[in-house]
Design a protein that fits this description.
4-stranded antiparallel sheet, 161 residues, single chain, alpha+beta
Length: 161
């Protein structure tokens, strides 16, 4: 059996340290905006293929839409970082032709480092007032501290006029 050179050990230690420190960050892993019909369904069956097909149908036919929900896959930073909340910021274009904004917040459970799904749903009234969603941003907060965020490609840091 061969012995490892000191440089190899140093590289191995540095690589291990880099992997451990990069995994210690909170993350918003995935955001799935989904239209819901009048019965509150995003799909007609549990199949992912059927869900995607029904979402395409709802995109093509706005009259079938009743509201939206955002399915968010996130991971906290530590087992007990304190009270956490997800914040969903939406920008839309109303039927009257004016830009609208809406911010929704939801407390989420802390106490684990496992990733989890959280659903944030707009009420039908909120959906009608907001109009077509043009951009969104989801962020994870611990008190006043921003831990992670993910935004749609149309999101800009300036507000619409």
């Amino acid at each position: 059996m061969q012995k490892l050179a000191p440089q190899t050990w140093l590289k191995l230690v540095l690589l291990t340290w880099a992997v451990l420190t990069t995994q210690a960050q909170a993350q918003i892993l995935k955001v799935l905006p989904q239209y819901l019909d009048a019965q509150g369904r995003a799909a007609l069956s549990p199949s992912l293929f059927d869900r995607d097909a029904y979402q395409a149908e709802l995109r093509r036919n706005p009259s079938l839409r009743n509201t939206m929900r955002f399915q968010i896959l996130w991971k906290p930073v530590a087992p007990d970082p304190g009270p956490l909340r997800l914040q969903l910021e939406l920008r839309g274009w109303s039927t009257a032709g004016s830009p609208r904004e809406l911010t929704l917040q939801q407390a989420v459970p802390a106490g684990s480092t496992r990733r989890r799904w959280t659903s944030i749903r707009l009420t039908p009234d909120q959906y009608r007032q907001l109009g077509d969603v043009t951009a969104w941003r989801v962020s994870l907060w611990s008190g006043p501290a921003l831990l992670a965020e993910q935004k749609s490609f149309l999101w800009t840091d300036r507000t619409p006029r």
